[in-house]
Amino acid sequence: MDxxxxxxxxxxxxxxxxxxxxxxxxxxxxxxxxxxxxxxxxANNINSSRSGRGRGNRGWGGGGVTQTQNVGINNxxxxxxxxxxxxxxxxxxxxxxxxxxxxxxxxxxxxxxTNNNRxxxxxxxxxxxxxxxxxxxxxxxxxxxxxxxxxxxxxxNVRQSEYxxxxxxxxxxxxxxxxxxxxxxxxxxxxxxxxxKSRAKRGRTFxxxxxxxxxxxxxTGHNLSNKFTRTETQIIDQETLNTSDSYGFNFRGSFxxxxxxxxxxxxxxxxxxxxxxxxxxxxxxxxxxxxxxxVLDTEYSNNYLNRSMSEVLEAKYRYNDGVVNMTAGFRLQxxxxxxxTQYMDGNDPYITEQQVVNFSPSLSLxxxxxxxxxxxxMEYRGNSSQPSIQxxxxxxxxxxxxxxxxxxxxxxxxxxxxLRFIITKFNPVTFASWNATITGSMTQNALVxxxxxxxxxxxxxxxxxxxxxxxxxxxxxxxxxxIIENRLHFNTRTSxxxxxxxxxxxxxxxxxxxxxxxxxxxxSRTQNYGVNENISLxxxxxxxxxxxxxxxxxxxxxxxLSNSSQNTMNWSGSGNINxxxxxxxxxxSDISYSDRKGYSNFDQSExxxxxxxxxxxGKKLTLQLRMTDILRQRLNISxxxxxxxxxxxxxNTLPSYFILTVTYKISKFGGNMRGAQMPxxxxxxxxxxxxxxxxxxxxxxGGNIPMMGM
Length: 710
Description:
Layout: H1 3-9, H2 12-19, E1 23-32, E2 35-44, E3 48-51, E4 54-59, E5 65-80, E6 83-107, E7 112-139, E8 142-167, E9 170-197, E10 205-228, E11 233-258, E12 264-285, E13 295-296, E14 302-320, E15 324-343, E16 350-368, E17 375-385, H3 389-392, E18 403-406, E19 414-426, E20 433-444, E21 447-453, E22 459-465, E23 471-484, E24 488-507, E25 522-540, E26 544-559, E27 564-581, E28 585-597, E29 606-617, E30 621-628, E31 637-641, E32 645-651, E33 657-664, H4 688-691, E34 701-705
Parallel strand pairs: 18-22, 21-24
Antiparallel strand pairs: 1-2, 1-34, 2-5, 3-4, 5-6, 6-7, 6-32, 7-8, 8-9, 9-10, 10-11, 11-12, 12-13, 12-14, 14-15, 15-16, 16-17, 17-19, 19-20, 20-23, 21-22, 23-24, 24-25, 25-26, 26-27, 27-28, 28-29, 29-30, 30-33, 31-32, 33-34
C-alpha cells in the first residue's frame, strides 16, 4: 500500500474515530516458588469479548458493533501441601452501537396484523469483579473450600425507535419513543463446600454446600413516547427511579453410597433455597412541559416485596459395569412464593401466594458394544415447571405504549416429557463413523401466549395454559470417513424437525381492553417443519490444506388460524485454502456464498471473503495481516417463530476491515514450579489455567496495529 498517497487523501481524525479496527491483548505469567500470577489485558472493536479473568473469547450475541477493553490479574499460591489460596480481580468496559429493523406478522382469523420497527441503541457497561478461593485439605478424607466474591457494575443505555402498525394493509397507528437509563448494581456472594470421603467404605462420600448472597441496585430512566392514530394522540413524558435490594441463602447436602459392590451406587441429595427481594419504583410526570418532573404517577409507582422458598429432594440409582451404564431417579421440588405489590393510588395491595410441587423422573441407559466408541443410549426426563410471579401478577409498566403484559393468577404448572435416543458406530479399520439421534418432547398445560389486540393494534399479552399439548420431533444422521488416509476426509450431516405450537389471539374493535376480564383468543395452531443438509470435503497435506462445504436448509411454517404459510430457504457453499510455504510463511483464504428466500423484505445474498498471511521470525516474533469481509457483503438476519406470530429481524454488522497483528513471545520461567504447573505441560496449577482467558495463550506481549476499515 502506498501509505503516502493514503495519508494525503484520507481524513485521519475520522479514521481513528470511526473506521479503525484494533485487537490488542497481553498475557504475562509469573512463576515464583509455589506462587503463580497471571496478568491479562486486552482491547478490541471487532465484536470479540474477553473478560478480565477469562471464560472465553467469543463474539457478541444480538447485533451491532461492540468494542471492549479489559484487564485482570489472577494468582494461585500453594501455601502448604494441604492449603491452596487464589483469586482474581478483573475490570471490563464495553460499548455497543446497534441498528435494527424488523417485521412481525401476527396470525388472526380474519385479519393480518403487521408491525414494522426501526431502532437505534447505544450502550456502555463497566464491570468489576473480585473472587477469592481457599482450598484446605484437612486430611486425605476431608476438604473445605471457601469462595467469596464481590462485583460492581454500571450501565448506561439510550434507545430510539419508530414503529407503524397495519391491519390488512391499512395503517392503524404509528409512533416513536426515546428511552435512556442509568443503573448501578452491587452483588456479594459467599460459598462454603465441605466434602468427606469415608475411610470405612470405599466410594462413600458426603458433601455439604452452604451459600449466601446479597445485592442492591439503583436505576434512573427517562421515557418519552408518542403514539398516533387517526383519532387521537397519546404522549408519555416520565422519569423513573428504581431501588432494589435482595438477599438469599441456600443449603445442599448429598450422600453417595456404594451398594453391594462398586458397580452399584445410590445417591441422595437435598437442598433448601430462600430469597427475598424488595423494590420501590417512583415515576414522575412533566405535566407542565417545563422539564421538571415533579408530579408522582400513582398508577405506576409502587412498593414490591417477593419471598421465595424451594426445597429439593433427589434420589438416583447408578449402575456401571463398563458395558451397561444406567441411571434412574427422580427429583421432587416443592416451592412457595409470596408477592405483595402496593401501588400509590390508595387501592388495596395486590397479594399473590403460590404453592406448587414439581416432580421430575429421569432415566438414562447406555450400552457399549465393542469399545466405548460404539454405543446405544436412551434418555428420558419428565419435568414440571410452575409459572413465575411475573406471569401471574406482573408489576404494571407503561414504557411500551403498544404492548402491555397482563397477569393470570389461575395458571397451572406445566409438565414436559423429553425423550432422546442415540446410536453411534465407529470402524477402527476404516476410521469411518456414523451417528443417529432422535429426540422428542411434549408438554401438558404448556405456558403459552394469549394476545388480544385493540383497534389501534396495541397488544395485551397474557400467559395461559394451552388446551392442547405442543410437541416437537427432531432426527439427525451424521457420517464421516477418510477417503484417503490422513489426506482426504468426507463428512455429511442430515437433520429433520417437526413442531406444533399453540397460542391464542384475537382482535377487538374496542379502544381499551378490560385487563381484569381478558378474553381467551381464538386458537392459533402453528405447524413448522424443516430439513437441513451439510456436506464437506477436506484435503490435508503438509504444504496445502483445502476444504469445500455446502449447506441447504428448508423451513415451512403454516398457521391454521389465518390459513397462511411461509416457506424459507437457505443455501450456501464455501471453500478454504491454507498454504504452508518455506521461510515460515502461511497464506490462508476462505470464501462463502449464501442466499436466502422467504424472509419478507430481507431476501438477500452475500459473499464473504476473508484472507490472512503471516510470517514467523524464529520462535518469538510473528507478523500477520488479516482481511475480513473483503467484498463488504456481510448480513445479520434472523427469523423467530412464536406461539401466534412470526418475525424477521436485521441488525447492523461489523464493516469490512483489515488488521495487522504483531505477536512477540517471551518464555522465561524460574523458581521451583513443579512440571505439572508449567504452561506447556497442561498444568498451570489447578485453578490458574481454568481462570485464564481461553482467547489468551501464554505467548507474552502481543498487539494489533489499527488499519483502515475497508
